[in-house]
Amino acid sequence: MRIDILTVVPELLGDPLNYSIIKRAKDKGLVEIYIHDIREYGKGNYRQVDDYSYGGDAGMVLTIEPIHKLMDELKAQREYDEIIYMSPDGQLLDQPLANHLSCKTNIMILCGHYKGIDHRIREHLITREISIGNYVLSGGELAAAIVCDSIIRLIPGALSDETSALSDCFQDNLLSPPVYTRPAEYNGWKVPEVLLSGNPKLISRWQEEQAWERTRLLRPELIEGMEGEDK
Ligand code: ADE
Asked: What is the pLDDT of residues 171-187, one digit of tens each?
């Protein structure tokens, strides 16, 4: 998989995408991530990439041309399955959407900044808009890093134990059961007896019960929304 991220603040994206599972996936050749500075395509000596908005609303807006030029250059080299714009008014990121994106070959992600981007970019150049939650960030960069993390870990081979992504929270729309490690008792706080029983059947039954119980208790809407998931 190849991911191209377009931003006016590339510094925000280097570090979050250089550690842990993402780093390992890169090292294994499972994913390539390229961060492009829109400013390099900006106008004039000052590399201007923004301008005042029509209508006089306060705040600067990213202009079309630098983004269009950069996108065209990338699109001339390969075909993109998705050209995503990170925006609080986009489709909410969830596990089915992460699964869907993890199967793609080439993805482009555009990060907005300032007041936003010229709406014509969204109308003509974008195939999907994604939000990571109902709150407003200063830009799309951190949201893009979250999208990248959620999809890269799903690429087969990215996790050391391949089955562990399958037993994740949300993978079957249930929260994960609680997990424990040694010692079996700490400060008088005990690990549930069944996990020490060595009986795999009992243990997996307990884990399934816990998953349902926790979901019912903490996130009942996940159970209510179980049918009809299709991205
Ligand atoms: N840009 C600003 N806020 C955002 C959000 N909540 N999700 C995605 N991109 C954003």
From this structure: 678 999 999 999 999 99
- Is any atom of ligand 1 closer than 6 Å to the C-beta of 87? yes
The residue ranges of every structural domain in the chain are: 2-152, 172-223
The DSSP bridge pattern shows strands 50-52 and 60-62 to be antiparallel
Assess whether the region 2-152 and the region 172-223 belong to the same CATH fold: no
Q: Is the CB of 93 under 6 A from ligand 1?
A: no
Q: What's the CATH number for 2-152?
A: 3.40.1280.10
Please tell us whether the domain made up of 172-223 is placed in CATH 1.10.1270.20: yes
Q: What is the pLDDT of residues 44-101, one digit of tens each?
A: 999 999 999 999 887 899 999 999 999 999 999 999 999 999 999 999 999 999 999 9
- Residues sharing a CB contact under 8 Å with residue 7, sequence separation 6 or more, in sequence order: 13, 35, 36, 37, 38, 111, 113, 139, 140, 141, 144
Protein residue closest via CA to atom 10 of ligand 1: 87
Would the CB of 140 count as within 6 Å of ligand 1?
Answer: yes
Contact 12, 141 (CB under 8 A): yes
63 Cβ closer than 6 Å to some ligand 1 atom: no
Ligand 1: which of 8, 9, 86 to mutate, most ligand atoms within 8 Å of CB? 86
